[in-house]
Amino acid sequence: MTTAPTSGTWEVTTFARGRGRQQPTRQGELRSVGSALDVLECFSVDGELGVSDIARRLDIAKSTAHRLLTTLCSRRIVEQNPHTGRYRLGIHLYELGHLAQARSDLRQVALPTMSELSRQTGYVVNLSVPDGADVVYIERLEVGPGSKLLAQSGRRLPSHVTSSGKVIAAYNADADRARREAGFPPRASSTIRSLPEWQSVLDDVRRVGYAHADNESYEGISTVAIPLLDLGQSAYAALSLLGPTERLGPQVPALARLLRSAAQRISRSLGR
């Protein structure tokens, strides 16, 4: 038996056929989905976590955390380390992530150009997109000395600590607004720490057409980035190079010219 939705609320009461057992409401199901996604977010920083760790971070009961982890394990989204008893991201999530990456039109179009940049420069080449106050690297060609540093790093960084984040925010009002609202927590010695500093950097980016970062996400590392712009001149992605500060820093203007030509080729191929 199903009741019609009432104004402002969507609740469905269902009885299992032949059992007379009431099933969870739609709202309850959605809350469980949200809680499961919250659990996955906990692994964005740590490789392995215990039940108590998850419960403490999400402010939920240990029994609830265990139930969520058990469900995720059953779908291979999370797996339990047999030696430590702690949990980590599972192989099926890895598979889904690679499917999402492989099916990205932007990534597929950009890869040949990124490979050419990698051969030309010997630096790490990144392709990133905005996500709220952060940037997410959807492809990274790791070569040269900078690749060792990135081996264990994640694919998400706050936009104010990266050249990619700066150059996207300079040409994308939503990305700029999200970073301003999130603030400017320090990460390295030269990280932007205030709104006036952020505004000054974006003004400079718009003036020269590219962004660079020195010792802002990692000490001893510099990056330079160019935006990928749509027909309305709004940034939907960024292309960047990363390497040791002492080597890449003096080459920033020349590298920016290479990146600009590459970004234009990618955008033309995408019809943007």
UniProtKB/TrEMBL annotation:
Matching Gene3D superfamilies: 3.30.450.40, Winged helix-like DNA-binding domain superfamily/Winged helix DNA-binding domain
Superkingdom classification of source: Bacteria
Biological processes, Gene Ontology terms: glycerol metabolic process; negative regulation of DNA-templated transcription
IclR-ED domain span: 92-272
InterPro entries linked to this entry: GAF-like_dom_sf, HTH_MetabolicPath_Reg, Tscrpt_reg_IclR_C, Tscrpt_reg_IclR_N, WH-like_DNA-bd_sf, WH_DNA-bd_sf
HTH iclR-type domain sequence ranges: 30-91
PROSITE patterns, alphabetized: HTH_ICLR, ICLR_ED
The keyword Metal-binding belongs to this UniProt entry's keyword annotation: no
A GO MF label: DNA-binding transcription factor activity
Keywords for this protein: DNA-binding, Glycerol metabolism, Transcription, Transcription regulation
Keyword DNA-binding (UniProt): yes
Role summary: May be an activator protein for the gylABX operon.
PANTHER family: HELIX-TURN-HELIX TRANSCRIPTIONAL REGULATOR, ICLR FAMILY (PTHR30136), HTH-TYPE TRANSCRIPTIONAL REGULATOR RV1719 (PTHR30136:SF35)
Name recorded for this polypeptide: Glycerol operon regulatory protein
